[in-house]
Design a protein that fits this description.
- By secondary structure, the protein is α/β, with parallel strands linked by helices.
- It folds into 2 domains: 26-228, pyruvate-formate lyase- activating enzyme; 276-347, Arc Repressor Mutant, subunit A (Orthogonal Bundle).
- It is built from 14 helices and 13 strands.
- It has a 7-stranded mixed beta sheet with strand order 1-2-3-4-5-7-6, with helices on one face. Strands 8-9-10 form a 3-stranded antiparallel beta sheet, with no helix packed on it. Strands 11-13-12 form a 3-stranded antiparallel beta sheet.
- A hairpin with a 2-residue loop joins strand 6 (207-210) and strand 7.
- Helix 1 (2-17) packs parallel to helix 2 (42-55), helix 3 packs parallel to helix 5 and helix 6 (142-154) runs parallel beside helix 8 (187-203).
- The longest helix is centred in the middle third of the chain and has 17 residues, at 187-203.
C-alpha cells in the first residue's frame, strides 16, 4: 500500500512538472495503460484524471481509455468506473477464450472470466471497447482461433487488436523454447490463422486499418491512430515515452528509482534529438502498417535523398506484389501484411 500511494503521488507530481510539454494543445485522447491500471481503486483513477483535467484542456468528445485485465472487471468496479470517472472506452487483455491457451500464456484469468467481463462491461454501459487476442500459440488450434473471433463478434465488440505470438530472447518463453521445453512458433499455422483473421473480420464488417488492429466503421482507436500519424504525445510514469516530432524522451523503468527521483523534484528521463534518418525509419514503419499507407511526399520534408532511396528500395517488393502503389502512396498488399516487419526493415535507411 505504501508503494502504491508513493507511486500515485509521483504520477501526480510528474503531471504537474510536465504540464507544458504539449504546449497547451487540447487533448483528444487520454490513455491509462502501460501496466495494470485496472488494479487501481476507482478513487485513485479519479485523482489522476482530476490532475489531468486541471492541467490540460480536454476535448468534450475525447476518447478516454483504460487498459484492464478481465479478472479486475467485476460488476461493482465497472459501475463505479462508469459513474465516477470520464473513462468511456475499455481495452481488455483477453488473449483467448480457451483455458488451455490462458494457462500456457500464464494469464491469471479464466475463459469464464473473459466471457463474463464482456457482458459486465456492456451492462455497465461501456459500448466502446477493444479486446486483445493472440494467435499462433502452440495450444491455439485453428478451431479455437475461429471460436475466439466468433465470441468477440457475437458480443458486438467494435474493435479488436490481434497479435501473433512472438518469442523474444531473454524472456521466460524464449528460454523455454531455447531449452526445448516449449515448441517454437509454427510459422505456417500463424500465417494460416492470420489469413483466417482477415477473412473472418472482413465478413463481420471490420476494417483492418493497421496490421494488428480491426474496427467497425467509426470505431478506429483515435489514440493509436494519432501515434501512427506522428502526432506528439506525453507519457507519464515508469518506462513512459513521450514524443514531440523532433525529439523523444523516456522515463526510467525502475519503479523505486522513479518514485525517489520525483520525491526529490526531478523527472528521471533520458532524451534524444531524432536524426532525419530516424524520422525516415519511423515514417516507413508506421505508414506501411496502416490502411492509409506511406505518402512519399512526407519524405521530402526530411531532405532530397530520402524519397529516391525509398523508391529504389521498394522496387523488388512492388515487383513481388507485397507492396502496392497508388500515385505517391505505398501500401502493403494482403500478402505483404504478414511480412510487414521484414519489408519495413528492408526499406530502412542503411547508408
Amino acid at each position: 500500500m505504501r508503494l502504491k500511494d508513493a507511486m500515485l503521488d509521483a504520477l501526480l507530481l510528474e503531471l504537474e512538472m510536465q504540464r507544458d510539454y504539449l504546449d497547451g494543445a487540447e487533448l483528444t485522447t487520454v490513455y491509462f495503460g502501460g501496466g495494470t491500471p485496472s488494479q487501481l481503486p476507482v478513487g485513485d483513477l479519479v485523482r489522476i484524471f482530476e490532475q489531468v483535467n486541471r492541467l490540460h484542456r480536454i476535448a468534450p468528445d475525447a476518447e478516454i481509455t483504460l487498459e484492464a485485465n478481465p479478472d479486475d472487471l467485476d460488476a461493482a468496479y465497472l459501475a463505479d468506473l462508469r459513474c465516477y470517472t470520464p473513462v468511456n472506452r475499455l481495452s481488455i487483455g483477453i488473449q483467448s477464450f480457451s483455458d488451455a491457451d490462458l494457462q500456457w500464456m500464464n494469464r491469471a484469468h479464466s475463459a469464464e472470466h473473459a466471457r463474463t467481463c464482456l457482458e459486465a462491461a456492456h451492462t455497465a454501459g461501456f459500448d466502446q471497447m477493444t479486446v486483445d487476442l493472440i494467435y499462433g500459440a502452440p495450444t491455439t488450434s485453428d478451431a479455437q482461433w475461429a471460436e475466439n473471433l466468433r465470441i468477440v463478434f457475437e458480443h458486438g465488440v467494435p474493435h479488436l487488436s490481434c497479435y501473433c505470438l512472438t518469442v523474444e530472447e531473454g524472456t521466460a518463453l524464449g528460454n523455454w523454447v531455447a531449452k526445448g521445453k516449449a515448441p517454437a512458433v509454427d510459422e505456417d499455422k500463424a500465417a494460416r490463422q492470420f489469413d483466417y483473421l482477415l477473412e473472418a473480420s472482413a465478413g463481420a464488417g471490420y476494417e483492418q486499418y493497421e496490421i494488428s488492429n480491426f474496427a467497425r466503421p467509426g470505431h478506429y482507436s483515435r489514440h493509436n491512430s494519432s501515434y501512427w500519424q506522428g502526432e506528439p504525445y506525453l507519457g507519464i510514469g515508469p518506462s513512459a515515452h513521450s514524443y514531440k516530432g523532433m525529439t523523444r524522451q523516456w522515463n526510467v523503468a525502475n519503479n523505486a528509482l522513479y518514485i525517489r527521483a520525483l520525491e526529490a523534484g526531478q523527472i528521471p528521463f533520458e532524451s534524444e534529438a531524432l536524426l532525419p534518418e530516424q524520422r525516415y525509419n519511423e515514417l516507413v514503419m508506421t505508414g506501411l502498417r496502416t490502411s492509409w499507407g506511406l505518402d512519399t511526399a512526407n519524405l521530402d520534408r526530411l531532405g532530397p535523398a530520402f524519397r529516391p532511396y525509398f523508391e529504389r528500395q521498394a522496387e523488388p517488393f512492388l515487383a513481388a506484389g507485397t507492396l502496392l502503389r497508388k500515385d505517391e502512396v505505398y501500401y502493403l498488399s494482403a500478402t505483404g501484411k504478414f511480412l510487414a516487419d521484414g519489408i519495413a526493415a528492408s526499406l530502412f535507411w542503411d547508408k
